[in-house]
Design a protein that fits this description.
2 domains, four-stranded mixed beta sheet, two-stranded antiparallel sheet, 5 helices, 23% helix
């Protein structure tokens, strides 16, 4: 088995990563009375592919004019929010409200280190900000872990996406390091389960054998993020 990249998580910060929330949906007020509950058929029939593409083009234009980015804490995010709220205000009867809360920053205080001892052979893994060069990488919004001596590990079977996967493993994952293969479910789901079963650290590894998209990553460069708690 070839391990392409290992993602290293200490303990975890999870939950919802939203800044402002907008209550409403995009509809054409001349076609639909939005004061009444719509059936699935009526709602689906109200959607026009040209309108959908128009909004997608506008979102792409915002990204293009904002250094290719609409992520949180960027001007592209703010412009996206303005576009959505302005459109809803002008084209629907919805009452638009925004709720704001603080977004905590995340940055490394120093480069992480990672080593293993197998059959008495010590191996130190290479960290790099270039994912194509790194043996391992950190997960955004995870917390630090300081393990100064060797700790046992227990490999979580299957893909670590269910309680059964974590309950069936021996030794129990509590207090030790748990490697989990990537795929099938989100990193957040794996992290929630790892936190639930009190692991010392979670290693998410890419075996380099399967190509995929979305929650099942391919063998290329992968930047992994947990979504932080807004409280």
């Amino acid at each position: 088995m070839m391990i392409r990249t290992i993602f290293f998580i200490g303990l975890f910060v999870t939950s919802i990563d939203l800044i402002p929330t907008v209550n409403g949906m995009i509809v054409n007020k001349d076609q639909i009375d939005i004061s009444k509950q719509l059936s699935n058929v009526r709602y689906a029939s109200s959607i026009n592919i040209d309108d959908v593409m128009k909004h997608l083009d506008e979102l792409q234009n915002i990204a293009t004019s904002s250094n290719g980015n609409r992520a949180v804490k960027t001007i592209g995010f703010n412009r996206t929010l303005d576009y959505i709220t302005n459109y809803l205000s002008l084209n629907t009867n919805l009452k638009i409200t925004k709720t704001f809360f603080n977004l905590r920053n995340f940055q490394l205080l120093c480069n992480p280190t990672f080593s293993s001892t197998i059959d008495g052979v010590v191996k130190t893994y290479y960290y790099s900000t270039s994912l194509s060069l790194a043996d391992f990488y950190y997960v955004h919004y995870s917390t630090s872990v300081d393990i100064s001596s060797n700790v046992l590990l227990t490999v979580i079977p299957n893909l670590g996406c269910s309680d059964d996967d974590w309950l069936s493993v021996r030794p129990s994952p509590a207090g030790i390091v748990a490697p989990v293969k990537r795929g099938d479910c989100t990193v957040e789901s794996k992290a929630r389960l790892a936190s639930k079963y009190n692991v010392a650290a979670l290693l998410i590894y890419n075996d380099g054998t399967t190509w995929g998209v979305g929650a099942v990553w391919g063998v290329g460069e992968v930047d992994v993020r947990l979504i932080q708690d807004k409280s």
